[in-house]
Amino acid sequence: MRRDFKEPGRPRPDLVVGRDEILIAAREQLARGGSVLVHGPAGIGKSTILRTLTAEYAESARTVLRCSATESESHLPFLALADLLGLVIDEVSDRLPAPQRDALESALTGRGESTLQRDGLALRLAVLSVLRALAAKGPVLIVADDLQWLDSASAELLGFAARRLGGMPVRMLCAARTATDPQSQEQDRHLRALPPETLAVRVNPLTKAQVAELLGHRGYTGLPRSTVRDIHSTSGGNPLFALELGRALDESPTPPRPGEPLPVPTSLRALVLNRLEMLPVEARRTLLVASAGARPTLALLHSAGRDNAEAETAQAAALGLLAPEREGPGVRFAHPLVSAALYAEAGAQERRAAHAALSTAASDPIERARHLALATTGTDPAVAGKLGEAAAVARDRGAPSVAAELGLLAARHTPADAEPGPDERRLQAAEDAVTAGENDLARDIAREVLGRVTEPADRVQAWIVVIEAAGQSISEVDAAYPQALADAGDDPRLLALVRYQLAWRALVVEGDFAEGREEAAHAAQLAERAGDRRTELLALAFQAHIETLMGHPDAPATIKRALKEPQDPQVACHHNGAGSARFRWLLMSDQLPEARKTVTALLREARRRGMVESEVHFLRFLAETELRSGHCGRALDLARESLRLARDTGIGEGASAMLTALAEASGGDVDRALALAREAAEHAEADGDLVYLSRALGSLGYAQLVAGDAPGTVQSLRRVRELEESLGVTDPARGRWHGDLAEALVRVGEYAEAQDLIVATRERALRLGRESVLAVLDRSEALVRAARGDQESAVRQLTSVQDRLAKLGYGLEEARAAYALAGLRTPRPGPTSYDEATRLFRRCRALPWLKRAEQATAAPMPQPPAAPAPAPAALDALAVLAATERQVAELVMEGATNREIAGRLFISVKTVEATLTRVYRKLGIRSRVDIVRLAAGHRTN
C-alpha cells in the first residue's frame, strides 16, 4: 500500500518559469535513485521547484515523508523528525529492538526525556532502522523544505541515517535558503544531513525575459518593456519580489513617470525597513543619497556632503543592508530591493534634497542633469536645456534608452512656448525609444503627442514613430498611412518619410516587390530634392535590398549609390542601411569571408551605439553566414543569442526564430528546430508578413528533411515556391530551399517534378552567377539519376559537387554531398562508406546530420551473397503502390533492414514501418517475409 503523508498544496505550474535546466538535472538525479538539494536566497522559487518535483515523483514512491520547518520552531528538538516519522512509526515499530523503539517513541511523543546526549546511539539506529523497514516495502521519498530551520537534533539524526542508506531505495528531495552571494558555500552545511553524492542545485535569478513571462502568467500584462526592465532590476530577478512589484504596479492608479521609483509594496518594504530603523537618522540619510545615485561610491557620498560616509555605511553593512564591493570602492546594496524600498519610503522633499546634493557632486554630465531634473519642480528652461544636452551625450554614447528617459524629463521641464517645445522633445525621446527597442513606450509617446500637435512636421514624425514601433506587425497600423500622407501635404521631405514607410508596407503586407521597389525609388528622389540625406540613404538601401531579392540587374548599381558619400553614421550601421544591403548581396553572391567581415563590423558598431533592433538583426545575419560556412556550433550560439535578445525586447522574434530553427536543425536539436520553425510561421501569419512567412516555411521544410519527414518537407517547400512566385522572388540564393525540395521529391518518388524544379532553378542561378546554388542543384540531380538507375553517372556528379562546394567554403553542403555519395556506393554501402561524411559533419559540428551518418554506419549489413534483384514480374506486382511504398518494398526484396532502408531513402525508421504497414494492406500480405516470397515466387515462375 502506497503511503503519503502531509499532502501539500498543488504546485503552481505558472510559476515554474526559467527553471528547465534545474528541473532536468534534478529529474536525472532522482531517476538514478539519487537525492537533490535545491538552494538559493529567499523568494527565488525553491519551494515551487520542490513542489513540482514532488508531484512528479511522489507517485513512484510507496512512502512519502514530509516536513517543512519554520524559524520560530527551529529550537524545538525532534520536531522535524516527528513530522517525518510520526505517522509511520506504528507501521514499523514492532520491527525495532526495544531500546531503539523506546528512545524513538520518547523523542517523537515528548514523553520521557530522550536526548541525543542520553540516547544518542539508540536514536540514531532507530531512525536508520525505520527507513530501512519502510524501504524494504517499497521506495521512500523524503521531502524537506526550509532545511535551514531544521532543528539541530533532527538534522543530526537524518544525516546519520542518510550516510548509511547505501543502495536502499530512499531518495531525499530538500530545499534550503542560502546566501544571495553565489560564491557562498553555505549549502555544504545542509548537505551533511543528506546522503553522499547528493546533487546540490543553486536557483539563480530570472532573466528579464523570464520575469516578463512570469508577470504575463500572473495577469500583469500590458506593462511597458521599460517597466519590466525596472521590475527585473529592482527585484534582482527574484520571482517573488518581481510578482509583488507587478502587483503593486497593477494596483497603482497611475504608472510612475520617468525618473520616479517603482511603487514598492509594504510586503517588500517590511523586509528591509525594520533593519533600517536600527540605523541613526544621519546614516539613513546617507543611504538615501546612495540609493538615489546610479553608481554610488564613498567619494561621491563625501562630495554630496555626507562627511561620515565610511562609518555610516559600515553600520549599514553590519545590519546586512549593504554588501562588500569586490571590484572597487563602490557602495553596493545587499539587494536592489533594499535601495528601492529605501527610496520609496522617503518623502518627496527628502528625495529632492538627495538629488540636489548629487547634482553638484556627480562628475558625469548625464548624471548631473538627471539629478538636477529630479531635484527641480515645475518648468525650467535652463534645466530642460541641460537635460537635452545630456540626452544627446547619451545618444552618442550608445545609450538610447537613457536618452529617451532624459528626453522625457526635459519635456516635463520645458515651458510650452520654448524652442524646442515639449512635444518636440517627446518625439525625439520616442525615436530614441525605438532605437533602444522600447517600442511600446515609443508608441505611447507618439499617440499622446498626436492628440495635441497640429504642425504637419510634428504629426508626420509622430505617425512614423507609430509605424516603426509596430515592427513586423505593420498591418495593424494600416490607418496611419493615409493620415500621415494627408499631414505631409506636398512637402517633399515629409512625403519622402511616408513613401519610405509605404515601401516597407508594400513588401511586408502586400508582398509586392515591384511596388515596394517603386515606392523606395520615389522616396529616394523626394528626399534628394528636399536635401534629406538620411531618408535618401535608407530608401536607396531598401531599393537595393528588394532588387537583390528580385534578381534585378540594377542591384549592384543601387548599392553603390547607397554607399556614396556623404554618409549618415546612424544609417551606415542600421539594419536597413546600405551596409546591410551590401552584406545581403555578398552573402547571396557566395562571398562568405567578405560577408562575415562586413556584418561583424556592423554588429560591433550597432552595439556601440545601443541600437538594439539592429543588434538583433546583425546577430542573425552573422549566424546565417556561419551556417553557410559550415560552422554550425558557432551559428547555433549566435542564433540563440539573437533569439534571446529578440524575445527580451519583442523585436524580430519571428525572424530570429526562423534562423534559429535552421541552426538547430543543422547543429542542435531537430525537435526544437521544428517547434521554432512553426513558431516563426505563426508569427509571420499573424503579422500578415508574406516575406518572412516564406522564410519560416523554408526553415520548417529543412527541419523536416533533417528529421526524415520527406512528405512534410515537400508540403512545406511547395508552399514556399508558390509564395515566392507570387512575391516575385527570382533569386534562388535568397531562401536556398530549392535543393531541399528536389531532394525530398526524390524521396517520395516524384522524380519528374524534382527534375523540372532543378532545370527551372538552374536557369535563374546561371543568369545570376549563383555557384553554390548550382552545386546544390547538381547534388539533387545526382539523386534523381540514382533513383532512375543511373548510378555511375550519379556518383561522378556527386564527386564533382563535393569538390566544388569545398572550394566555395560551404562546409555543411560539402558534407551533405559526401553523405549522399556514401549512400550511392556500389555494390552496397558498407561501414566505411560514411567515414568521409562523418568526418565532415563532425568538423562542422552538424550534430543531427552526424547522428544520421553514424546510424547509417552502424546499420547491420546483409550477409553475402547479396539477394538477387527482384524479377520484372515481381516489380509489376508492386504497381498498385505509391512511389515511396514501391521504393521501400523493392529494398525489402533486396534484403535491406528497416534501418538500412531509412538511411537509403533519408527517412526515419518509424516512417519505414508505417509505409510497410500500408504495403502489406495493399498487397494483401502480412509481413516482409511475404514480400520476399512474392519476389521469389515470380522468379521461379
TrEMBL record:
GO terms for molecular function: adenylate cyclase activity; ATP binding; DNA binding. One of its GO terms (biological process) is regulation of DNA-templated transcription. CDD domains: LuxR_C_like. It comes from the Bacteria. InterPro entries: AAA+_ATPase, AAA_16, P-loop_NTPase, Sig_transdc_resp-reg_C-effctor, TPR-like_helical_dom_sf, Tscrpt_reg_LuxR_C, WH-like_DNA-bd_sf. Residues 874-939 form the HTH luxR-type domain. Gene3D superfamilies: P-loop containing nucleotide triphosphate hydrolases, Tetratricopeptide repeat domain, Winged helix-like DNA-binding domain superfamily/Winged helix DNA-binding domain. Keywords: ATP-binding, Nucleotide-binding. One of its GO terms (cellular component) is cytoplasm. It holds the Pfam family AAA_16. This is Helix-turn-helix transcriptional regulator. The lineage of its organism: Bacteria, Bacillati, Actinomycetota, Actinomycetes, Kitasatosporales.
